[in-house]
Design brief:
292 residues; seven-stranded antiparallel beta sheet
Length: 292
């Protein structure tokens, strides 16, 4: 492993009923390719009286990617989308010029004990698409490219990699790939993915060079600096990244943009309740006072 690589340790934060492990943004690495925010949800057992209930909140300038290993979640947004997302499915919401959404435990599971484990991810939009019309796309588990090599099960969640393309409608050059291995195996990144790379250890461990990186950590490097990696037995990892943008991205609360003025305007619009809201939902998460 090159001495210019970074190992990022997951930092926990409390968002209500459960802890989320924040991987990026990180002070030494704000983005990996177009990926600007990665939160690790769980694993945790929900119910009774403990559910996911994230009320209406806004976004601009990004796409969100929801991917679960276990459990279910219901996504609703101001485009009119209302989608139940199961483990292995991909929920992809593009905020563009502005969208509002909620995330909740399904009604049919309330009162029952259920496990949930997954990731909530933000992907910044290219500058020329930051003001696009908001959209929501759902891709089922069965539609994602899967294959096995050297005893490793691969799933291409989004973007392009390993000569394959995911049907998730991304807006820039990126990739997100899940690898699962029951036995200790090796894989190579050479010419398989393009741009910056993050290797997130979800379960188990990986080895690269003389380093052993345990679960809850992420290795961030360049593709040409991290070539051959050993994935440990009973391990699950996520590879993600892509080509970085030329312009800096600013992140303030739930807003991402290449223009600070657009973020200021979005904050005012949320305070003044000028965003289109989710139909039939009266919840409202206020802008944190420190963000005004």
């Amino acid at each position: 492993m090159s001495n210019t690589s970074i190992i990022i340790e997951e930092r926990s934060r409390d968002i209500g009923n459960f802890l989320v492990g924040r991987l990026i943004p990180f002070r030494k690495k704000r983005m990996v390719g177009p990926f600007c925010f990665i939160d690790h949800m769980g694993p945790i057992t929900l119910g009774p009286k403990k559910y996911i209930d994230v009320g209406q909140h806004p976004h601009i300038g990004l796409s969100t990617l929801t991917y679960l290993f276990k459990g279910e979640i219901v996504h609703s947004d101001s485009t009119g989308a209302h989608q139940r997302i199961y483990a292995g499915d991909v929920g992809w919401m593009t905020a563009g010029k502005g969208v509002v959404h909620t995330e909740r435990s399904p009604e049919g599971l309330r009162g029952k004990k259920t496990d949930i484990h997954g990731f909530q991810i933000w992907v910044a939009l290219p500058k020329e698409l930051e003001n696009m019309k908001p959209k929501f796309s759902f891709t089922s588990k069965s539609e994602l490219p899967t294959w096995t090599k050297n005893g490793i099960e691969f799933t291409l969640i989004a973007g392009n990699g390993y000569g394959k393309k995911s049907p998730v409608p991304v807006h820039s050059s990126l990739y997100m790939v899940q690898l699962i291995s029951d036995t200790k195996s090796s894989f190579s990144l050479d010419n398989e993915v393009k741009g910056e790379v993050g290797v997130c250890v979800v379960e188990g461990y990986i080895e690269t060079g003389n380093e052993k990186i345990e679960q809850g950590n992420m290795l961030v490097s360049k593709v040409n600096e991290v070539c051959d990696i050993i994935i440990g037995e009973q391990s699950r990892i996520l590879l993600f990244g892509g080509e970085p943008f030329n312009e800096e991205r600013y992140i303030d609360w739930n807003f991402v943009s290449s223009d600070k003025e657009k973020i200021k305007e979005a904050k005012k619009n949320w305070v003044n309740k000028k965003f289109k809201m989710v139909s039939g939902d009266s919840s409202y998460i206020p802008l944190p006072s420190r963000k005004v």
